[in-house]
Write a structure and sequence with these properties.
Layout lengths: L1 E5 L16 H15 L9 E5 L4 H7 L10 E4 L5 H14 L5 E4 L8 H10 L4 E6 L5 E6 L17 H11 L3 E4 L9 H10 L1
Parallel strand pairs: 1-2, 1-4, 2-3, 5-7
Antiparallel strand pairs: 4-6, 5-6
Length: 198
């Protein structure tokens, strides 16, 4: 189980919330997300892959208290863009003998941990588990082996990432397991919607 995370630095995270938030407020909000989201998954090796590597100390400071004692490991994301970094993460963990491997985002603070457990249970041979978000992307992907051809930007735009990935899954002859649609917080409208839902 992998959390993909960023160091919560002003001007580098949640910039689509600004304005009306300031860059400091957006960074503080994302830090709150990290403290809420990152937690060990019982019975599963749990890792945080952080970006950028040179800001590792800032990310460590934002993680929940006691994360190391809880068995959560921190590694650096490596690659030129998000897709390459995800490819490298999967490849690294599969090479170490871990399977299946599931990556989830850190900007869906209300995502139920039971849904993550369900995703792990459903991630088997020949299956790809995807959790679509309301913005057209996905909040979670689970694979049973390295499949770099599935991990790429959508030429039609970010709001078609889930749909394009689903097409790639089917073209590869794999079974798509689609989880329930969930909210991630990218825009101020997303933040308001999360607040109203609470």
């Amino acid at each position: 189980m992998v959390y993909f995370a960023k160091a919560p630095l002003p001007g580098q995270v949640k910039t689509r919330l600004c304005p009306p938030l300031t860059t400091d407020e957006a960074a503080a909000l994302y830090g709150t997300f990290l403290r809420r989201v990152v937690r060990p998954v019982p019975g599963v090796r749990t890792l945080v892959y952080g970006w950028p590597g040179e800001q590792r100390a800032a990310l460590e400071a934002a993680l929940p208290a006691g994360w190391q004692d809880a068995g959560v490991e921190l590694r650096d994301q490596c690659g030129a863009d998000l897709w390459e970094r995800m490819q490298n993460c999967f490849a690294e963990l599969f090479a170490e003998g871990h399977a299946p491997v599931l990556i989830r985002n850190t900007d869906s603070p209300d995502l139920d941990q039971d849904l993550v457990t369900t995703a792990l249970d459903q991630c088997g041979a020949g299956r790809v588990v995807l959790g679509p978000d309301r913005g057209g992307g996905y909040y979670l992907i689970g694979l049973d082996q390295a499949r770099p051809e599935l991990l790429a930007a959508a030429p039609e735009g970010a709001d078609t990432v889930f749909a394009q990935t689903a097409v790639r899954v089917r073209e590869a002859g794999l079974e798509l397991v689609e989880l329930s649609i969930q909210r991630d917080v990218d825009t101020f409208e997303d933040l308001l919607a999360m607040w109203r839902a609470r």
